[in-house]
Write a structure and sequence with these properties.
Helix content: 55-70%
Number of helices: 9
Oligomer: single chain
Low-confidence stretches: none
Structural class: mainly alpha
Strand order of the largest sheet: 1-2-3
Length: about 220
């Protein structure tokens, strides 16, 4: 809850501001002025073709910090990956936010390397959990979800056999929702059911291929008390 709330964002912004100060972040006033001169503040940022406007200026440095710099090309890359300000007017506030935003992750990476974060046990555990989650998600998509097919006949059969699930009372009269009105709901149910069956079959196959040996004596010793 804290991570999703405003308090976290406020503390995060404070940390980034401290990082900027620690790394001596400085913008180049002349370069910033040139950059901003290319925009019309009455139009939204997404209306501008940056590749065309800055075709020969991508290497121009807008800001520097200990260990790095922010070029126009960096801001362009950042804006392509972060669409939060796409519909904001291209005024000084928006453009400055894009410039500092482009420096944010590179600066935090410098701090992470300095603090040797990759050797921190909590970080390593979190990263392993994240990587395992990605692998699990990819297996689900490639080996299971992509192979699930629901036919019209299956949808109709489920509807005919489970009409009581789609019944409701109106004016003291029991009615049943039309097939077309619940078709997507049935499809989702059947997909979930097929996924569970296929997942069990897939895991059972893995258990046969990679048998797990449980040492009962160790378990008994571990949970003796």
């Amino acid at each position: 809850e804290y991570n999703r709330g405003k308090l976290y964002k406020d503390e995060y912004n404070k940390y980034v501001a401290k990082t900027q100060k620690d790394l001596n972040y400085k913008s180049d006033p002349d370069a910033i002025k040139y950059f901003m001169s290319k925009f019309d503040s009455t139009k939204t940022f997404s209306t501008f073709n940056l590749d065309s406007i800055f075709a020969n200026d991508k290497a121009k440095v807008l800001a520097t910090y200990n260990g790095g710099k922010v070029t126009i090309g960096d801001v362009m890359d950042y804006s392509n990956k972060n669409k939060d300000m796409a519909n904001s007017f291209a005024n000084s506030s928006t453009l400055n936010s894009l410039i500092t935003g482009a420096a944010e992750i590179p600066m935090l990476n410098i701090v992470a390397e300095k603090e040797k974060i990759e050797k921190d046990e909590d970080y390593v555990d979190l990263l392993n959990e994240y990587q395992s989650g990605l692998i699990s998600f990819k297996i689900d998509q490639d080996q299971l979800w992509s192979k699930i097919k629901i036919t019209d006949a299956e949808l109709q059969n489920y509807y005919n056999s489970n009409k009581d699930k789609f019944s409701y009372t109106e004016n003291n009269e029991v009615k049943t929702k039309a097939f077309d009105d619940v078709k997507s709901e049935i499809s989702n149910t059947l997909q979930q059911n097929k996924f569970k069956d296929m997942e069990k079959e897939y895991v059972d196959g893995l258990r046969k291929k990679y048998p797990v040996k449980i040492y009962d004596n160790i378990l008994e010793k571990a949970f003796k008390e």
